[in-house]
Amino acid sequence: MPKGYLALVLHAHLPFVRHPEYDDFLEEDWLYEAITETYLPLLKVMDGLVRDGVEFRLTMSMTPPLCAMLMDPLLQERYVRHITNLIELTEKEIERTKFDRAFHELAWFYHNRFQDARATFCDTYGRNLVAAFRQFQDMGKLEIITCGATHGFLPLMAEHPESIRAQILVARDHYCQCFGRPPKGIWLPECAYVPGIENFLAEAGIRWFVTDTHGIMFGHPRPQYGVFAPVFTPNGVAAFARDVESSQQVWSAEQGYPGDADYRDFYRDIGFELPFDYIKPYIHPDGIRCFTGVKYWRITGKTNDKQPYVRQWALEKAASHAGNFMHNREKQIEHLAGVMGRAPLIISPYDAELYGHWWFEGPEFLNYFMRKVCYDQQTFKLTTPTEYLRMFPTQQVITPSASSWGAKGYWEVWLEGSNSWIYPHLHVAAERMTELARHHKHGDHLIQRALQQAARELLLAQSSDWAFIMKTGTAVNYAVKRTKDHILRFTRIYDQIKTGQVDESWLADTEWRDNIFPDVNYHYYE
Question: Distance between CA atoms of 439 and 39, rounded to whole angstroms?
Fold first, then answer.
């Protein structure tokens, strides 16, 4: 009998970025980079674990926008074009670096890696990565959970609870279409919670959610076991809180593993470093330099004098860090079990893109760690939140506190000077969507299409990603434009429905552009 349990939870999410009106769109690269560097490597890790008979458990949210993009034929085709272009680039790099052994070996490394990515994507999984992840859930190794329909920041919708309800129920429906079963758990967008959200989760049949540490620690009454056991909210939906210690060890670039000198430097990319005429065919057609994924340097340290990346050193360090992480969890669980008098549960949640995209060696770290847990210790077992609730169905009942996992723990990241202007528009649109749904419960086919598209535009405008980008300053113009575009399209649809004059040609073009949730149920706003 293990002394305790550990649940690794990866949050896989990207905003819905799909622009069929352009032949090449820069922000679509976010998806292509994640496929190559995070999703395919994670699938490869799980495939290897299953092949070798390694017992493991992993929990992973796959948000509706991410699933919609992964299943979209246009984006699938564009990914193949993207990775084929990178294979051509590495062929040139092999020739360019032939007199420099370190870089020449790395050029071959990337060439083989990109070729393997294309073959795995096209041949092994038939371009359908949602089905690829689903097979591991069907095996009982991976628990896939859902999120808000478009990752909307739910506490800032509290004035319009119909919008919270729609975010959750639309997500539930989409999950069922993708994975052939209803979701048992949910990653609340940004781990943002206010009391009352659990009522909509219960309506959707969702049994548990993830919150941040202080969401449980500041709950009422105080949690008897801190964050090392789930709690039930008053309506029976369970809450699991993040463990700070295990999160910091992996997440922090300063204190955690990813900042080690032997790991690959994320920011040094040949897309920004090589002569423009040479790299031009492999960056954006408008001449905008961008990441290619070909990076030759290791972190080295806080210096401009970076040293070449040595793959073997990085893998050895990943194995060492995996062993250290396991040892620390053993000691942590042994201590907690003695204090609590019961088997503790450690919840370790991370953005999935940390593993592979930001921390290149992250998937290898997970691979080593899960193998070591299986064979090199007997103190704890890997589990999923649903499995833990099945083993321990009795828990304390508390009301969690309002919280998020953003800086300072509440709403400041998504509601401050750079982005506060969006919320009056979102609130008006939410109110109008409820008005439309209640007054047009039955209508002709064209009105129903317009109502469905109005729901899509509101959902897309509500994505927390746009406010986050405005705050962080990474692609502000794009985030502002997306917010305005969706609000303006929603408003135009609203006006057309109110006057009974729906422009079918324009509506069809809008459906073609923003095609997420083809079967969206606008009645959820009633």
Answer: 43
